[in-house]
Amino acid sequence: MRIMVMAGTSDATALIKRLRGLNDEIYILATTVTSFGAEIARSAGADEVIKKPLPTNELTLTIIKYNINILVDSTHPFAAEATRNAIQASKETGISYLRLERPPTKLPETALIHQVTSFPEAAQLAKTISNGRILHLAGVSTIHYLTEVIDADQILARVLPNPYSVKKSLETGLPGENIIAMQGTFTPEFNKALMMEYGAKLVVTKDSGEVGGTPSKIEAALELGIPVIVVLRPEVSELDPEKVSITVDDLFKEIVLRMSG
User: Fold this and answer.
1) Domain 2-103+235-260 class in CATH
2) Which of 47, 118, 155, 202 is the most exposed place for a label (fewest CB within 10 A)?
3) Residues in contact with 211: Cβ distance below 8 Å, sequence separation at least 6, in sequence order
4) pLDDT tens across 38-67, in order?
């Protein structure tokens, strides 16, 4: 069995480890968009890693070249274009497509939470309602939306502790002291302490689900009375007829079922 895992999340890493432990006859090809992601996928047990974004035509050719049987899309919920490409490529090649997607966060009903549908909208809203330092908790690739409309000195960002993330943060104009490099899904207590320590007056995050720590971030901010801008997930209508699993266990069972079928 030859499986392609479109990686980039902690769920994808866990799935690769599970597949690697199943048996030695499984070939796992992982795809990522960063060197950091490629290292993680390789250490998790991927036989080979392709480190670049793959548009539909390249994805189709890769599936054919590696004789892939199952395409597992475990990209981030915000990587909508990657998901659309994966669905199209699986249809063109006639292979199984399986989606692993964290369930969305159930947001509390409070005036402190502002829901938006894009990062440019989040940046404009932040510019309008902020009255102090803004804590960005939505990933290094989206910081620039804020720095394009707000003074970088006003923005704090928590990013992964690797050279790529720190370098990219600095490139947006953030001062070094405004970059908080740490990895993990943190407790509400820790997030609360961080917000207090840095004097955050507004939090910008995205709905990455429980695995991404979204509920914990929101809980901490609300306890402190800090407004939160939440960027909602993009809708991918192409997913409607597809098999979508919300946990690694569910997806793993589905793959085993397909292998035995």
Assistant:
1) alpha beta
2) 118
3) 9, 10, 11, 102, 185
4) 899 999 999 999 998 899 999 999 999 999
